[in-house]
Design goal:
The protein is mostly helical. It has helices at 7-18, 28-33, 36-41, 46-61, 74-82, 89-99, 111-120, 129-136, 143-169. It has nine helices and no strands. The chain is globular. The termini are far apart.
Length: 176
């Protein structure tokens, strides 16, 4: 629900969708029964409405086995999730990292990780997935932890660059 939205807008829409449930957040069966117009009325786009309905259908018919998803290996989880409309590899990798807490995930398609690796290794260009895989090989079996550090490097590099740019843009004070 929050992809490509501001945090505030996503929180508002999430709250509205949560209110559709009879006892808390709606169960897959409740969302599957919700007409597209009711999901659109709470702020979901047409594409997200179709994605929610596909997700619910897969949970209900067993193609997305939520109860046993944790038991699958990383590649099988990714394959299972990307079969759902609206879920791509990046989303599946974030699910592995943050929901299933898998320790050895490297999301080479993440822009923040690319920026972090570029800064950390002082690369001239954004690293390709192959370069990222090669550099991160020494982090196995804890590449997820490496990702946390890369995000922090990217964040602090951006903050530092922004701060130094602001300082450089200020006029020098005159001597009195």
């Amino acid at each position: 629900m929050s992809q490509q939205l501001s945090t505030k807008a996503a929180a508002t829409i999430f709250g509205r969708v949560a209110a559709l449930g009879r006892d808390g957040f709606p169960k897959p069966s409740e969302l599957a029964e919700a007409p597209p117009e009711s999901l659109r009325a709470v702020g979901l786009s047409e594409a997200k409405t179709r994605a929610v309905h596909d997700l619910d259908a897969r949970v209900l018919d067993g193609r997305l086995p939520l109860e046993t998803l944790r038991e699958l290996d990383d590649d099988a989880v990714i394959d299972t999730l990307v079969a759902v409309r609206g879920i791509g590899r990046w989303t599946a990798e974030m699910f592995l990292m943050f929901r299933l807490r898998r320790p050895d995930i490297l999301a080479t398609g993440d822009l923040g990780l690319q920026k972090g690796m570029k800064a950390l290794y002082k690369l001239r260009a954004m690293p390709s997935p192959a370069v990222m895989q090669k550099r991160a090989e020494i982090w196995r079996p804890f590449r997820t932890v490496g990702c946390w550090y890369l995000w922090r490097v990217a964040e602090t590099t951006t903050v530092r660059r922004t701060s130094s740019s602001a300082t450089a843009a200020r006029p020098a004070s005159r001597a009195r």
